[in-house]
């Protein structure tokens, strides 16, 4: 009966939504806040009265985001730090510094992502390892540092941005897909541990979004576009923010992405690969690195453009 009650409650929660919680004076750490979705999320948090802590790599910085938020809130309510989140020592020092200068972090947004696009054979072991450090282990290190203070007060919220590579493996993105799939398991495991420990005041949210109209994806041209065009930053950020504010554990933007695990579950594996080949893989990569400006370079120094393949050869 308890399971039925929870299912009904979840369905009602999904259909009718609930009142958004008040996050004024919450200390929110956002990684990858210098641009893109991280910047947009930081602005939305600031508009709701949160104390926003910005974190990005030294080569990107937070100057633009800091300026935008300072025009919304008092400068004392926004703080900017630089950190290589792929470095465990730097992450540890960052959290200690924030706790000393700002206060205990009550909301963590794991948003930073380092994209690498190469086939698994063309990617070096060092590149693969660096990608996992930045995209997977950074979230683990941050949660390990921040979660104890949340548990002492039974209050907090951990948010992780996943992207579409968390729900299906995409060719030439093996490092990112590995990291994002790992984050799914990490978030589910943490949520279970919190439930077992009786920490009902600490929430988790995992957000999956379609690719966005940012510098990384502005040249994207896949067969998905007529059905699901690239999302604007404003639209994606507002949808994810609403899910956070009603404590939703998992959110997909757009909702069509909820169907992907179901489709993968009922279709033969080769059939799902044919769908991927038809809509994504054969002709054009998700983004074209060599056409981006130098300041937007990714971790991988070269862009691997997959050759056109037949459906059968790709599946065998």
UniProtKB/TrEMBL annotation:
Residue intervals of the Ketoreductase domain: 26-205
Which protein, by its recorded name, is this?
Answer: Ketoreductase domain-containing protein
Q: Where is this region: Disordered?
A: 297-316
What UniProt keywords are attached to this protein's entry? Oxidoreductase
UniProt xrefs under InterPro entries: KR_dom, NAD(P)-bd_dom_sf, SDR_fam
Q: Where is the composition biased (Basic residues)?
A: 305-316
Instruction: Return the similarity comment.
Output: Belongs to the short-chain dehydrogenases/reductases (SDR) family.
The UniProt entry, under Pfam families, shows:
adh_short
Protein source organism? Adineta steineri
Which cellular component, as a GO term, is one annotated location?
lipid droplet
Any one GO MF annotation of this record: oxidoreductase activity, acting on the CH-OH group of donors, NAD or NADP as acceptor
């Amino acid at each position: 009966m308890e399971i039925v009650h929870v299912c009904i409650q979840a369905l009602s929660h999904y259909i009718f939504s609930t009142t958004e919680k008040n996050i004024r004076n919450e200390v929110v750490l956002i990684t990858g806040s210098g641009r893109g979705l991280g910047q947009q999320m930081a602005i939305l948090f600031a508009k709701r009265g949160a104390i926003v802590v910005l974190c990005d790599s030294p080569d990107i910085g937070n100057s633009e985001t800091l300026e935008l938020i300072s025009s919304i809130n008092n400068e004392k309510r926004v703080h900017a730090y630089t950190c290589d989140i792929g470095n465990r020592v730097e992450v540890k020092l960052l959290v200690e510094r924030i706790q000393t200068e700002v206060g205990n972090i009550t909301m963590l947004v794991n948003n930073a992502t380092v994209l690498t696009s190469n086939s698994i054979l063309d990617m070096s072991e060092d590149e693969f390892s660096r990608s996992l450090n930045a995209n997977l282990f950074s979230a683990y290190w941050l949660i390990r540092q921040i979660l104890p203070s949340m548990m002492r007060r039974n209050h907090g919220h951990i948010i992780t941005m996943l992207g579409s590579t968390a729900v299906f493996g995409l060719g030439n993105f093996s490092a990112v897909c590995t990291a994002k799939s790992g984050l799914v398991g990490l978030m589910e495991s943490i949520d279970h541990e919190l439930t077992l420990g009786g920490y009902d005041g600490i929430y988790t949210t995992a957000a999956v979004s379609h690719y966005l109209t940012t510098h990384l994806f502005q040249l994207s041209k896949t067969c998905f576009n007529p059905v699901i065009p690239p999302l604007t930053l404003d639209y994606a950020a507002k949808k994810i923010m609403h899910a956070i504010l009603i404590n939703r554990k998992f959110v997909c933007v757009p909702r069509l992405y909820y169907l992907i695990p179901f489709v993968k579950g009922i279709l033969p594996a080769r059939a799902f690969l044919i769908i991927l080949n038809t809509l994504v893989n054969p002709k054009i990569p998700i983004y074209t690195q060599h056409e981006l400006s130098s300041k937007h370079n990714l971790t991988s120094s070269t862009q691997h453009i997959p050759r056109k393949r037949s459906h059968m050869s790709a599946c065998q």
